[in-house]
Prior knowledge:
four-stranded antiparallel β-sheet; elongated; two-stranded parallel ribbon; alpha+beta
Amino acid sequence: MKNLKYISIVFILILSACESGPTNNSRLWNGQWTAPQSIGANSYLVEGYDTQDALNGARAQCQSMGKEFVMRQLTPHTSRTRATVTFSCN
């Protein structure tokens, strides 16, 4: 019975770690991106688990501000690095 309890707890923790959207964790999972960081002059930086996640995070930031997403620079993800997108919201 104890094993079932521990297995359930681990399963719940895994599911909660795999939620899509912004995260402040240093480890990103599929569907996640970092919170946008202001880099000055109405420009922001977002890192994503993969390229589409970074773009989703950038678009979500601009939508929350009621503005349109304008990409400045995109660095696609590789097997060793996260995707990064630099953007502004106009």
